[in-house]
Records
---
Amino acid sequence: MTAVRETAVLCEQLGHTVIEAAPAIDAEQFSDAFIAMWAAGCAWGVTSIARLSGFPPQPEMYEPVTWGLYEQAQRMTAADYLLAVQTVQRIARQAACFHEQFDLFLTPTVADPPLLLGSFDSTPDNPMAGFERAIAFAAFTPQANATGQPAMSVPLYWNDENLPIGVQFTGRFSDEATLFRLAGQLEAARPWQHRQPPLSIWAARGESER
């Protein structure tokens, strides 16, 4: 959250008015609906492949998380799917109401610094383990995915391990122009083009220890 606070200060320094506020969205309802729609989309893909290929779907044909989502969708009803769609549509309207007062909504991009390879892998006893970890990691981006709002992540900050820390701005519907203008201001104030993370954080640690 330090990056968010510092970004808010930077925006104020650039002449923007910053107010602490958030849309009144039930995070648990949104998460359940988003996952249900994701599972339904996954099942649609698996079923389409089976129809086109003539081969019935089998777990060994897919990654564990894909098969786990497919199985979850098999336990859903048509009503479950439509209720999930209804929930996301309601949340989109709530977001639109929020943006009648605010041009942009500032949040972290992700909940943690970049993770090690394998952090999102399935485990033998839980094929959904990686997916569940991904949900916790990407806690802020799905709203724009689901509602269709424009959003951007800007790498304004770097942690002690020289890894970029992004902050996300979500805008009003169809208002990409405001995001582009703000991105230009932020990059001019705090350029990031010349900064590059190490190819491997382990390599960076090794170099710092020499």
Note: The CA atoms of residues 30 and 88 lie 7 Å apart.
---
Amino acid sequence: MAVSVIIADDQEMVRTGFRMILESQPDIDVVADVVDGEEALEAVERHRPDVLLLDIRMPKLDGLEVTRRLSALATAHPERGERPRIVIVTTFDLDEYVHTALRNGASGFLLKDASPAMLVEAVHAAAVGDSLISPAITVRLLRDMAHTGSGPPEPVKQPAEPLTDREADVVRCAARGATNAEIAAELYVSLSTVKTHLANVQLKLAARNRVEIAAWAWESGLATGGP
């Protein structure tokens, strides 16, 4: 079954370009493209897409508020089923609001100049519950999530069970922006083993996705350790 996608961006050229790229894939179906946050929420309610490509800066409601509202709606009304996986797409490589969107459950973060292949990969990853962040900004973004902001730092969440040494190795690699395949090659393990370790860590941290795991690694200091 094709992955259904909604594109929300106030720039017509961006929407048109994304639609052309995604609709060139036989397993992706763009069901709507909209110009602002209010229309994005309405389109999600109408089409129930698998993935929402969402700009941060839009009229009426920005992408941050759309993400927050969809997250709150899913929490308040679990009987309505899962909300769409959200991939943030922005012009800025370190938008001051992006970390909040990711903490609200966004499944990815891309720059608008990302390659067509990376856009397609991000949609596929989000559709299966994985995450993709533009490699060029992964470490910068997550380091800022951990070390910037006003006021005293929040307490770091503790896992329900301690991570094993191998789980910690996998998380360190993920926090530095490595893909599953790159982690497998670096640690000399299979791809399925990497996925199993990440799934176990996600349960231990009660994390919603890979992004939250990586953010926790920076906040806890694990990302700056060995190997």
Note: The radius of gyration is 17 Å.
---
Amino acid sequence: MPFGNVTLHDPVHNGTRQSMHNHFVLKSLALTRPGGMVAVLTSHFTMDAQNPGARREINDLADLVGAVRLPTGARRRAAGSDVVTDLLIFRRREPDRPPADGTWETVVPITIDGTPMKINTYFDNHPDNMLGQVCITRGMHGADI
């Protein structure tokens, strides 16, 4: 997924004006037949954003099958970015099926190296799905990640 602090105008697939990366996740799911699988590489902000709005919209369309958090710099050679990246796998839900699990819509407070932060409940429940060592570093724009 392309990512950035940009909102694209797309009244069909982005009526709620989600960020670019979440817009493309939602659009991919909307264009996938029920029962189909969608795998995306996206920034960790899809899973860790404080506002759960995008995750709720995604969960309205699909079930999270699994997620893996890649270490900082995993995409440096391919994408020229050190952003923390998540591999998310979704299964587009059939119209008559209820969501399998909604806990991944939320974030929980944790403390790493004495610094409080929030992380998606999925990764808090599945720490083995985070590759590398969990630590606080300074991101490209000075934010702790």
Note: The helical segments are 20-30, 45-48, 53-61, 76-79, 121-125.
